[in-house]
Amino acid sequence: MLSFAKLATSRFSRNALVTRTFTKSSVSNSDHLFVHRDTEYNNPNIKFEFTPKNITEAEKILKKYPAHYKKAALIPLLHLAQKQNGFTSIGVMNYIAKFLEIPPMRVYEVATFYTMFNREPVGKYLLQVCGTTICQICGSDQIFEALENRLGIKIGQTTPDNLFTLVEVECACACVNAPVMAINDDYYEDLTPEIAVKLVDSLKSGVVPAPGPQQSRKTCQPASGLTSLTSEPPGPGFMVRSDL
């Protein structure tokens, strides 16, 4: 009979020789840097403060939360600051931390986790094309290609005139109107490569197109046309007894 020591040694030796094979997809590197690096346009010496108008707006936001739990307003205040500054700089993050009386690290954690906070400057028009499954099936790859060719940039880049920044985003939650692109705060849906190019050309000329579906249907109607609610709806009293 093997002693305990010999048995343990035997098991260790056998296990040491066993190899396990793991299968994984290829590494996909993000185009975002999550560790801050000081630059001429983004460093702690460049201070940020809310404008008087945004101070008023920030105070309205704070009133939505308990006085002893101001940190709950972190995300909406970061959005407000980014809208004013153009991107979420280190100065913005430090200011929000001071404004909410929380450690700066708490702000850094949130700003680096959520991709809607732009850690680098973006163009006047932020083109956010959805590249998730449904939009991809409906042609988002061709839309990316058309926009890259028209603007002369790649995904994650900004045009030399700082007018457009092109990024790929995860599900925009408008699958029924795929493919979709958000331009700043507005959604443009039912896109084709030709329509996408037409949109940026319109913005170049200073005309902001009306948001929403860019083809014949309205809102979220079926692409093939209405299949219900096709007749005039009945008026008041429909199916109600005449004596009531």
From TrEMBL:
Transmembrane segments: none annotated. [2Fe-2S] cluster binds at residues 130, 135, 171, 175. Residues 213-231 have a biased composition (Polar residues). GO terms for cellular component: catalytic complex; membrane protein complex; mitochondrial inner membrane. It comes from the Eukaryota. The keyword Disulfide bond does not apply. CDD domains: TRX_Fd_NuoE (cd03064). Binds 1 [2Fe-2S] cluster. GO terms for molecular function: 2 iron, 2 sulfur cluster binding; metal ion binding; NADH dehydrogenase (ubiquinone) activity; oxidoreductase activity. Residues 208-244 are annotated as: Disordered. GO terms for biological process: mitochondrial electron transport, NADH to ubiquinone. Keywords: 2Fe-2S, Iron, Iron-sulfur, Metal-binding, NAD, Translocase, Ubiquinone. SUPFAM superfamilies: Thioredoxin-like. Its cofactor is [2Fe-2S] cluster. Belongs to the complex I 24 kDa subunit family. PANTHER family: NADH DEHYDROGENASE [UBIQUINONE] FLAVOPROTEIN 2, MITOCHONDRIAL, NADH DEHYDROGENASE UBIQUINONE FLAVOPROTEIN 2, MITOCHONDRIAL. This is NADH dehydrogenase [ubiquinone] flavoprotein 2, mitochondrial. It comes from Smittium mucronatum. The lineage of its organism: Eukaryota, Fungi, Fungi incertae sedis, Zoopagomycota, Kickxellomycotina.
